[in-house]
Amino acid sequence: MVLHSMFPKLSRCFSFTASRDWLYRQSFSVAGLRSIATNFGDGTTMSCWVPKINHPSKPTLVLIHGFGANAMWQYGEHLHHFITHFNVYVPDLIFFGDSFTSRPERTETFQAQCLMKLMEAHGVHRMSLVGTSYGGFVGYSMAAQFPQAVERLVLCCAGVCFEENDMQDGLFAVSTLDEAFSILLPQTPDKLRELVKLTHWRPTMDVPSFFLADFIQVMCSTYIEEKKELIEAILTARQLSNLPKITQPTLIVWGEHDRIFPLELGYRLKGHIGESAEIAVIKNAGHGVILEEPKEFARHLKSFLIDTQPTSFSSQLTLWEKIQKIFDFRSFWGALAVCCGGILLAELLGTPLLVMVIILCYLSARFLFIYV
């Protein structure tokens, strides 16, 4: 009871979300990435995690996030699967993280064009893409606009084949744009809980309001109007007949119980692309399949992206990369190591509160992942 009353007071002077964000930054840095902001000179700036050392022998993989906190929060738990096999780039799309534009465009076509400019600015002209939900819209547009640049494509729960009348026909959990805005851009703890329940087949335990309020303040309080315009751009005037076909090998991954973009859209997308696409349906998962079934999700991506590579890169890995390949620092053992390290540091410094803070930061990451 004392702890329960103490946590909200602690949150007033200590942000659990910002601390977890800092921890992600450290983990990305340890993984061999650095964050760089690229100014296009037209009022647009994009931030991206890029390799500190680019290995010419490795192919390039771009991880594109959906609506949510930022790129780190959505791919932080999966980065280690790919860092030893690819030169990995993790961008923040426009109006997420530190990326923004003064230009009026809001379509996924514009996002894809900006992402292509970003990759070219880093000297990358050939790549594979993984796009989650809204990131899948952007990834699909990149594959359609720049077919020579995109080798392989993974689309996870991306309702690219959505049509405007699907909302009126009751295919989705929401029926109006205003309702979609209020849920997808939560501004109160109750709305954030509603989003978690909507995106997960098995929602986590109820999270205290002060955790949720802190998350909203740090991650969901900027570019609100611009993000509404992004949502409106993908949900209005969509017709399947206007969607260009792509020819790249494509893996479509879907949670069986997705309520944001129902599984029907996954099969519709498979039929639209044709023979070059395959679909993997993950059971016991909703729209947040990356979090709910992370091992199954990673297995499908490894099979599609890594097992198809003509050469093995294991002999070309650095010592640190080989260690990363053997040990999963973001697994249970990684979490245990963080907690043990915190306890040891607390004993040395005589500050037991530090242990509680570290554990709370870890738990906040487990409970506050939003994949939209």
TrEMBL record:
Keyword Transport belongs to the record: no
InterPro entries noted in UniProt: AB_hydrolase_1 (IPR000073), AB_hydrolase_fold (IPR029058), Epox_hydrolase-like (IPR000639), Meta-cleavage_hydrolase (IPR052370)
GO MF annotations, alphabetized: catalytic activity
Pfam families cross-referenced by the UniProt entry: Abhydrolase_1
Residue intervals of the AB hydrolase-1 domain: 59-294
SUPFAM superfamilies assigned to the protein according to its UniProt record, in alphabetical order: alpha/beta-Hydrolases
Membrane-spanning parts: 352-371
Keywords carried by this UniProt record: Membrane, Transmembrane, Transmembrane helix
Domain of life: Eukaryota
Protein name, UniProt field: AB hydrolase-1 domain-containing protein
Taxonomic source organism: Lupinus luteus (European yellow lupine)
Source species taxonomy: Eukaryota, Viridiplantae, Streptophyta, Embryophyta, Tracheophyta
